[in-house]
C-alpha cells in the first residue's frame, strides 16, 4: 500500500538526509540549500520561506544560529526563480535535525510534493566553518 504524502514526509524526516555529517571540527554545521522553483511560483516560495525563517529564528529552535533566505539575481539585478538558504546550527544533531522536525518545515516539504512547484530537486550542502587565524 502506498504511503500518503504526510506519511512519506514523516518517514523522510525521520530518516533525514543520508549525507549529513554526525560531527564537525567546529561543533557547528552550516547548511547551504539551493532551491529552484518553476517561474510564477516565486511568491509562494517566499511565503513558505518566511514562515520557516520565523520559526527558525524563534525560541522553538534554540540551536539555530543563522537562517538567511536569499534570492539569486541576474547580472542586471533582476530576481530569478532560484533561492539560496544559508543556515547555521549548533551541531548536526541538535541543530539541523531539530530544525527539520518543526511544523513550518513539514508544511514547506508538503507544499513541494502537493503543489509541485520545484523546478528540480533541492541541492543541500553540509559545511564546516574554517575559523580565521588570529
From TrEMBL:
Residue ranges of domain ABM in the record: 29-90
Domain of life where this protein originates: Eukaryota
InterPro entries tied to this protein: ABM_dom, Dimeric_a/b-barrel
Transmembrane segments: none
SUPFAM superfamilies, per database record: Dimeric alpha+beta barrel (SSF54909)
Pfam families cross-referenced by the UniProt entry: ABM (PF03992)
Name of the protein this chain belongs to: ABM domain-containing protein
Organism: Rhodocollybia butyracea
Classification of source organism: Eukaryota, Fungi, Dikarya, Basidiomycota, Agaricomycotina
Amino acid at each position: 500500500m502506498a504511503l500518503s504524502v504526510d506519511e512519506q514526509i514523516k518517514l523522510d524526516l525521520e530518516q533525514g538526509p543520508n549525507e549529513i555529517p554526525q560531527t564537525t571540527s567546529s561543533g557547528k554545521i552550516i547548511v547551504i540549500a539551493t532551491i529552484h522553483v518553476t517561474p510564477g511560483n516565486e511568491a509562494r516560495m517566499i511565503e513558505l520561506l518566511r514562515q520557516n525563517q520565523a520559526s527558525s529564528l524563534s525560541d522553538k529552535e534554540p540551536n539555530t544560529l543563522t537562517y538567511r533566505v536569499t534570492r539569486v539575481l541576474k547580472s542586471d539585478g533582476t530576481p530569478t526563480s532560484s533561492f539560496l538558504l544559508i543556515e547555521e546550527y549548533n551541531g548536526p544533531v541538535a541543530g539541523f535535525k531539530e530544525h527539520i522536525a518543526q511544523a513550518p518545515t513539514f508544511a514547506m516539504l508538503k507544499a513541494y510534493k502537493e503543489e509541485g512547484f520545484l523546478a528540480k530537486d533541492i541541492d543541500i550542502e553540509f559545511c564546516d566553518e574554517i575559523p580565521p587565524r588570529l
